[in-house]
Amino acid sequence: MALSLGKDLIGLEELSADQIRLILDTAEPFKEVSERAIKKVPTLRGKTIVNLFFESSTRTRISFEFAEKRLSADTVNVASSGSSVEKGENLVDTARNLESMRIDMVVMRHPSSGAAQFLAKRIRSNVINAGDGTHEHPTQALLDLLTIRDRLGRIEGVKVCICGDILHSRVARSNIWGLVKLGAEVAVCGPRSLMPRGIEGLGVKLFRRIEEAMEWAEVLNVLRLQLERMQAGFIPSLREYNRVFGVTVERLARASRKLLVLHPGPMNRGVEIDSRVADGEQSVILHQVTNGVAVRMAVLYLLAGGNPERAEAAKGQGSSREGAE
Ligand code: CP
Q1: Domain containing residue 239: CATH number
Q2: I want to staple 143 with a disulfide (CB 3.0 to 4.6 A). Which of 72, 197, 215, 295 is the partner?
Q3: Into how many domains does the chain fold?
Q4: Digit-coded pLDDT (tens) for 54-67
Q5: 111 lines ligand 1 (CB under 6 A)
Q6: In terms of domains, do 45 and 109 share one?
Q7: Does 318 reside within a domain?
């Protein structure tokens, strides 16, 4: 039987290594669509997708919307502010009302862990998790994996250290699942107060000092310090955090390897990452953002029932005609 993703994409925990590779391979031909003068193929023409964003987002929301439009789907954006959620309507009622208008897919970001799974069990439409609480952010991890593979030519055996606020990070969880399944060596590094208890149980090494992590790793994925949570006293001060854990040009220069630096964004410049690193030659942060569109096109295409072997042909459909218009 042909490999598929099933009905929904909730997290990388549920996917096999082959399913993750399928998404990455399917993203490859879609990269080229965004480089065209007319960035559109008719692959999802006639499909209706609702983007339900109950939490703020720049990269994920916009790149899903670009991915949907480049595949010619019809899209509607719903935010909690300005919708009947503000009047107390619950998630399932909101989604069922949308389904009554004959939609095909829901892309959802939600502050509660488990919200995407909860919704997926209750509606017929495909559900894609665009980040749920501290649980998972699967498409972010997929674009991180694609970027590492683009830059290093492989994922298996690559040493990746995820640095910073692991405790609150759905990006860290999805990256750990994805990287471990694809055979990478994975480590985490951060303050004790921002490290989930028992994290080694997920198959990762633990570094307490950023210098040691940098000496070990080939790739650093630097996480945002979730400043909105820092009133709870997780760290003494931002300055202190930067002094002890900040990814700086000086620290990178002392590492014996030339590390690749990723960051999912949004960045706190001068806190977890210095501007000279973020904008420097070892940074692939904007490459990650570019890959986000192709990865999301691949996920939408596969969940809509697209044949992965026809992704190359799908991106070619109508391109010469539309390109000439
Ligand atoms: N990386 C990420 O999820 O960014 P946004 O919150 O801007 O979507």
Answers
A1: 3.40.50.1370
A2: 295
A3: 2
A4: 999 999 999 999 99
A5: no
A6: yes
A7: no
* 124-127-130 Cα angle (round to 5): 165
Please say if the pLDDT value at position 68 is more than 60: yes
| Inter-residue contact 289 to 60 (CB < 8 Å) | no
Contacts of 51 (CB under 8 A, 6+ apart): 61, 64, 65, 68, 75, 76, 77, 78, 107, 108, 130
Pick the atom of ligand 1 nearest to 56's CA: 6
pTM above 0.70, yes or no: yes
Range of the domain at 263: 138-287
* Cα–Cα–Cα angle for 274, 279, 281, rounded to 5 degrees: 110
d(CA 262, CA 162): 9
Active site residue 251: no
Q: Supply the residue whose CA is at minimum distance from atom 3 of ligand 1.
A: 60
Instruction: Give the pLDDT of residue 231.
Output: 67
Q: How confident is the model at residue 71 (pLDDT cuts 50, 70, 90)?
A: very high
Does residue 162 lie within any of the structural domains?
Answer: yes
Tell me the two tokens of residue 38: 């007319």
Model confidence pLDDT, tens digit, residues 223-275: 999 887 776 778 889 999 999 999 999 999 999 999 999 999 999 999 999 99
Q: What is the largest CA-CA distance in the chain?
A: 60
Q: Is residue 189 located within the same domain as residue 220?
A: yes
DSSP class of residue 122 equals T
Are residues 83 and 150 part of one domain? Answer: no
Neighbours of 181 (CB within 10 A): 20
Do 119 and 142 have their domain in common? no
User: Looking at ligand 1, which residue's alpha carbon is closest to its atom 4?
Assistant: 59
Residue that is written with structure tokens 């029932």 in the block: 305
Q: How many angstroms does the Cα of residue 30 sit away from the middle of ligand 1?
A: 21
Residue spans of beta strands (DSSP E) within the chain: 48-53, 74-79, 105-110, 126-132, 159-163, 185-189, 205-207, 219-222, 260-262
Q: Whose CA is closest to atom 6 on ligand 1? A: 57
